[in-house]
Amino acid sequence: MTILNKKDLNRYRYGNSSIILFSVGCLLNTKNGDTFPMLENNTADFDDRMNIMEMDADRFSSQEWFDALSYDEYVVVKNTIKYLGGK
């Protein structure tokens, strides 16, 4: 299991709302849908944000990312999209 540097994770933490999506190498904030790429040193690049709502709206450009998710991660992402008012 990959452990994040707690100091780096706390820069963008809303309670227990952050989860690592190992299949796509991202940290997902389930409160607002922001994703951040994971770096080799097991920290997240908080300067390179993408939002799953924007990605869901532009499936042409993002389909490969969604297809790469494991089943369990896909469920988390879909639930986050529903929570944020998506389809």
Termini Cα gap: 31 Å
Whole-number mean pLDDT: 83
Count of DSSP helices?
4
Biggest sheet descriptor: 4 strands, antiparallel
Percent of residues in helices: 25-40%
Structural class: alpha+beta
Task: Give the spatial strand order of the biggest sheet.
Answer: 1-2-3-4
- The unreliable regions are 8-15
Question: Would you count the extended β strands for me?
Answer: 4
Q: What is the N-to-C succession of helices and strands?
A: HEEEEHHH
Please give the domain count. Answer: 1
β-sheet strand percentage: 15-25%
Structural shape: globular
Radius of gyration: 12 Å
Word description of this protein:
39% of the residues lie in helices and 16% in strands. The chain is globular, with a radius of gyration of 12 Å. Strands 1-2-3-4 form a four-stranded antiparallel sheet. It has one domain. It is of the alpha+beta class and 87 residues long. The chain is built from four helices and four strands.
Descriptors for this entry?
4 helices; alpha+beta; globular; 4-stranded antiparallel sheet; 87 residues; 16% strand; single chain
What's a concise summary of this model?
The chain is α+β, with helices and mostly antiparallel strands.
